[in-house]
Structure formats: structure tokens, C-alpha cells
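Async update (no meeting this week)

Hi team, since we skipped the sync, here's where things stand on the single-chain job. The sequence we agreed to prioritize is pasted below, unchanged from the tracker. I ran it this morning and attached the output directly underneath so nobody has to dig for it. Comments welcome in thread, and please keep replies under the output.
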Amino acid sequence: MVERKDLSDLVHSLTAERPVFVHRLRLMSAYPQRLLVITAALSTVKSSYAFSDVNPNRIMQSLIAALAGWNLPFVCTETHELGRGDHRLLLVPGPSLPLAGLEWLWPVFGRQ
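Output:
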């Protein structure tokens, strides 16, 4: 299962629509292969937003909590085009698929 969010939608989902989005993330965590694709560079996610006064740390903390608490990985893409495509081809490391060679899926955390 893949959920794709642009930055403004992610911020809105983790603030104004938080209960709904958190519920969807919990449902995603039940799938053996899941990925949250954020169509913005990590540096943009961690910087102030022109469209909102939300603290970027709040958004990053939510993403880290989803990764740590629900084992829900996320990837930040540099452009919207990199976040598009046939998501059936995305491989998400898990017990049957080692992380070796797929470090690009975790730009924040690297290999664990």
C-alpha cells in the first residue's frame, strides 16, 4: 500500500485532519508492504512553510513516530514526478526483503 502526499497536503493531514490521517496510517501499518511517499525534498519538509504557520518539527516528529511506532516507512522525493509512477513496482524492505541496496528508501535514517 502506498500513500502519496505533497507537502501542503501532508501538513494539513497531520494537523487539521489528524485523526482521519492517523487512522489511515494505522490501517496502512497492517499491510506487509507499505510506504508513505512525500513529494517534497526532506529539506523542504524540515523548513518553515509559506502556506502554514505549523512548526516543521511537529511534522517531522509525526513522521518519525509513524516510522518508530507503526514501522511505516516514508520517502521524500525531490519532485512530484519522482513520487509518481507504477507504485506496484516499489519494494519496501521487510523480513523477506533485506534493506541492502535499498538505502535510498530511508533518506533520514539510513540502514538500521
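Quick observations from my side:
The first strand starts at residue 2 and ends at 5.
The beta strands are 2-5, 35-38, 74-76.
Reply here if anything looks off.
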